[in-house]
Amino acid sequence: MKDQIFRLLCEQFPYPLSIHNREGIILWANKAFADMVGMDLEEIQGSHCFQIVHHLEAFPSYCPLLEVIHFGGRVIVRTEEIMPGRIAEVVVVPLETEGGKVKTCLHLAREVTEEIEQLNHLRETKRAFTAILDASVSGIAFLVDNRFQWINRSFSEILGYEITELRNLPLSAIFDSDLELDIRRKETHQALRLEGRYRFQTTLKHKNGSKVHSLVGISPLDRSDLRQGLVLTIIDISDLTRAQAALIETHQRLENAYAKIKEINQELALKNRELELARKEAEEANRLKSEFLASTSHELRTPINSIMGFLKLILDGLYDSPNELLNFVRTAYDSAEHLLNLINDVLDVAKIEAGRLEIDCLPLNLDDLFTEIRNLTMVQAEKKRLSLMIEEPGHIYVYGDQQRLRQILLNLVGNAIKFTDKGEVRVWAEQKPGTDLVVINVKDTGIGIPPDKIRVIFEAFRQVDSSTSRPYGGTGLGLTISKKLAELMGGRLSIESPGLGRGTTARVYLPLAAGIDPGASPLGPEKPEITDVFVVFRNRRGYPEIEEVLREKGLSFRLFCHPDEVATLIEIDCRPQLVISDLIFPCREEAKIRTGEELLNFLDKTAPSVGIILYDDIGELNEDELIEHYTNAPFKILPKPPEKTPLLKALFALGVLQDLEILERNGCF
């Protein structure tokens, strides 16, 4: 029974089986063997194996069957060519022995032709794939457990290692830092699980210690199990990075150059506009001067002709009585005085344009000045039968130059009378509420000014009617001179008119001379009462902010127009705690102290206990540099326009204020 089962199994065995004697004759074969050689079982039995398998007349030079027959034991030949073009894995074992010799053998053959072909194809593919990977400019490596298993040539060349060296190194050896590796490892695991790949840019470590800017890619062999291994690719982008940096730098330079060119173009356009404006202004100035010369020549000839005419009558004795002679002389004198006024106007304009007109500001009593103006203009008003009302100011003092303020008021009142044929001319002064400004008003009921002419009436040589046949004389310089004089005294001049036929109002704004005793001399006593702060500015800008702070902190102060006035008081031992001053002032030829810095130098040498705050509106002074030169008097430099917080800090720094809570309440800390 067992023999039958074994025989049945052998006959149905899927691989070729055969039994051979010592001569190689096939004693038995199964169906798989018959299928392999393509013969019937009856034909196979009794045939030599080398005939039906190898198609030879004798055993080949090597035969595993002969090896078993002659030497005994089991022989396995994995790749024997059992038939032309067909390769099999062969196993030969002895079955029967007699007298120590093998009598029969069992021959098993498993054809592996396709496997060998596939293996050869795989080897060829591997060689081709390896050649392709080695030819790649990208570095490629295969990693298991963060150690290199395979590396291409580019990978080793990029990092400067031999391939054998890298195989003995951990992955951390090529990263710039352990922290970088940790960060990348966490990011890699997350990205590989979610997306199946991870790419990033980083710097790797070259063997020589330098940094290699690289683009790194990582992909898993098995997305579900990263332990199977990872493919690591690197691309050296150092040259690209340097080129990109150079490109960015070049781009930045081009942008800077473009911005510079744009700025230059804007400056050129601005200069062109300025030149065009200057050209138009020059043309307008030439036109105005031509009109001025035409009208002024008429104005000059009229008094000259009058003077010469009346002097000729006197020289020829063509007068009937001493009274008539006196009238001739008076008329000639009036014409000469008018001529002198015309010439003085022209000279004043020339001085103003050259910046050589000197102003000497002192406290002035407007009562005295108004009385003088009334006396000088009353006759002119009476001739035109106008009502001239000059109201008493009531002991108001202003800072100004007496001669120049008289010139301004005479011009304004004279114009009001000249351009008013009926009605009145009214003059009054008042302190502007909430300020330390005094306003002198000159109002008439005359011909008025068209709205479109208001803005040009202050221009030199400009008149509303510039023709030589205009009904009112004059050079057109009076308002220009008056406006400039008011500004030089720290004030301003404005003109208002509702329109033609509705009159005109002129207003002169001047600094109030605070602290003047109406019953005392305008200059005060020899040693005036001690004041906390002297404030000296060339004009009114900045006063409200400064005075608000000083009043709020209970500090008494006096106002001045020039630093020389402050120096004069300090020389007579009238010393405040602090001086607040401008840096630049109008030139006074006779002044000893002409600028804010000269005042600082004066205090440093003469009164080092007096502090000073200088307001620099041109950015000329450097506080750190000045400390090296002025070591005695405490000082601070502040920018214009004046602001409350910097002023409070300066007052505290100079010791004028002591309470820190003041600064805290005002948000200085």
UniProtKB/TrEMBL annotation:
Pfam families membership: HATPase_c, HisKA, PAS_4, PAS_9
| Enzyme class, UniProt record, top EC level | transferase
Q: Output the superkingdom of the source species.
A: Bacteria
Which UniProt keywords are present, listed alphabetically? Kinase, Phosphoprotein, Transferase, Two-component regulatory system
List, alphabetically, the InterPro entries matched: HATPase_C_sf, HATPase_dom, His_kinase_dom, HisK_dim/P_dom, HisK_dim/P_sf, PAS, PAS-like_dom_sf, PAS_4
GO MF terms listed in the record are: histidine phosphotransfer kinase activity; phosphorelay sensor kinase activity
Catalytic reactions on record:
ATP + protein L-histidine = ADP + protein N-phospho-L-histidine
Please state the Enzyme Commission number of this protein: 2.7.13.3
The terms describing its cellular component in GO are: plasma membrane
Q: NCBIfam families, alphabetically?
A: sensory_box
Query: By what name is this protein known?
Result: histidine kinase
